[in-house]
Amino acid sequence: MATEESASHGLDPEDWPQARLQAHRMLDDLFDHLEGLRAGPVWRPMPAAVRASFDAPLPLDPSPLEAVHREFLQHVLPYGTGNLHPGFMGWVHGGGNVAGMLGEMLAGGLNANLGGRDHAPIEVERQVLRWVRRIFGFPGTASGLFVTGTSMANFMGLLVARQAALEGEAPGTTQAGLVAYASAAVHGCVPRAMDMAGLGRGALRLVPVDAEGRMRLDALEGALAEDRARGLRPFLVVGTAGTVDTGAVDDLAGLADLAGRHRLWFHVDGAFGALAILAPSLAPLLAGLDRADSLAFDFHKWAQVPYDAGYLLVRDGERHRATFASPAAYLQRETRGLAAGSPWPCDFGPDLSRGFRALKTWFTLKTYGLQQLGTMIEGTCALARRLEARVKAEPRLELMAPVALNIVCFRHRGEDPDALNARIVADLHESGIAAPSTTRLGGNLVIRAAIVNHRTQARDIDALVEAVLGFGR
Ligand SMILES: *Cc1c(COP(=O)(O)O)cnc(C)c1O
Q1: Which tens digits make up the pLDDT trace of 364-388?
Q2: Residue 453 Cα, ligand 1 centroid: separation in angstroms?
Q3: Is 235 in the pocket of ligand 1 (CB under 6 A)?
Q4: pTM higher than the cut 0.90
């Protein structure tokens, strides 16, 4: 029996069997939703009344869990981004997966704090690190950490690179004059990382790309020589494995050579593209990735792990630790008891409290296996080639960039093509048939279909083409 005290203050259910029933119902409802995805629209606009329902008074009094869940079913579930749906092709979103979802539920139940201390969840994260090293050909001394996403991982990689640059300098040397390099197609989070690091985006040189969208190494050499001649201190080159606009992969081996010659830190933004390494037919595109000093990538994109699950891998684990570790009396390490097991994850990044992102990733990788994930990734690229072929075969459509991986940029021909294609994409979204996004290439607004979702099939590609042609009429 509950004591008077626990009954008045505790949050556990008073009626466990009833709570258990409700929990099963909630899981069943979600399975119904997942099983029936294809029958519904990709996305639907949220009615004003639904939006207004989120502007309710403070919940001072309790509500039955059942009632809160009913509100979720009515107001939240139907109005998602649509990234679970096979017709979703916008913005390089992952589609999620059932094993990962259940792993996330278990993680919520465990309520583990992965900042540190000696417990099994930390061993799960360490096991994923050992796998990540193996997958990317990094040494056993490499360190790694789950973070929110590649935006954060790129920022942290930059901080480790700066640490490395300043380490060899005389004490008191400042970061003044440090400059970094990336391709003009680099993701916007890298210039922002320069700002956040206090280096400023002005200290990031955007190197022109070739016709395939890859950083021009001759132009990079030129920029380095110019900066050196001006007395600046080049310290970092960021290669991209899978640009966000077109999926282009920089010449990573060439960049590794160049970084070695110029003594630059070689960081790779492999947000979605790095995991192409799991597909035997695509892995050669990533040659040289195993020579990076650090790599940022996301499990929540191509590997379909539920959001969020970004990752930073650093070749020199000691330098990584030196960038972030800080002493604090309340984080005292011991050799015995719960405070053992140092170094802790919190020594490798800015977060102290950390969720159990490793568990949904562990469930996903173990349940499907790396080979099946590689086959799924290959499949999305095959669908991109199907779309590319259909665009090329259709006189009213025009391919706007080479297809390197799984991203197809195209547009409908016509007068004022920017306005026409923007309208077509909005019509597509509102029709619920397919959801590509738009981007700008060479000043042109284009339709961008990023085939990331494991549920997307050939019929979804065909439906997209038919709908674009239909709305273009
Ligand atoms: C998605 C993406 C990012 C940002 O990653 P988040 O996980 O959204 O923070 C960075 N770079 C590239 C190339 C991306 O595709």
Answers
A1: 999 999 999 999 999 999 999 999 9
A2: 16
A3: no
A4: yes
